Amino acid sequence: MTDTPEPGEIVDTITLGQSVIAVNDRPRAAADPVERDLSRREADILLRSYREPGCFPEAVRRLSMRHLLVLVGAEETGKRLGAIALLSRMSLAESTITVLSPAATPLDLLSATDYGPGRAYVLHDWMAPRAERIELVNLARKLAELGSYLVITRNGVPSLAVEVEQPWCAPDPGELFDLCLSTYGARAGTGAEQLAAARNRALALPTPAEVVRLAAGLVRDAEPAR
Question: Which domain of life is it from (predicted)?
Fold first, then answer.
């Protein structure tokens, strides 16, 4: 189990096979691959300093049409939170999101998972070997018939399953840094020059997780700014 992050440290820092859990208003990671439900309140906590990347609008459109979307890209580019944010945009019968095991096989997802009508599902860091295109297309068809949605995240490059895969990109680091500061507020005594220097450092950081960690060192340890 990893340490509990500081408020706002909610980007792609969860290790392989872990599910997102929010405890006492602070997100943390737990090495527990079993299914669980992520409540709307937990999702809102995780997303309150989330910055949508440029690929987000297209991903929303494709998920709403196909009901299944596999976010594919490099590690630590925000795919996990992106998946939750995408599902939060869908019209659902229930607001909870069920977190599925990353060890599930394509056959498990297609035939051994009990999907409820109008429900949302997420599977982080899929561990299965690359699925056949027809398996994913059939899964998308099954989800569409139920009015349910599933977003899967996977590290790597896109496969031939172009109908259901979405190349993922990181958000603009400067915009993400600004959002973290505006959401949580700068710590007392933090000067404008210090904030400007930190923002310049953020522009050179390679992942959203590092940007959020940098911002977390400058914000108040309290509730988000009103």
Answer: Bacteria
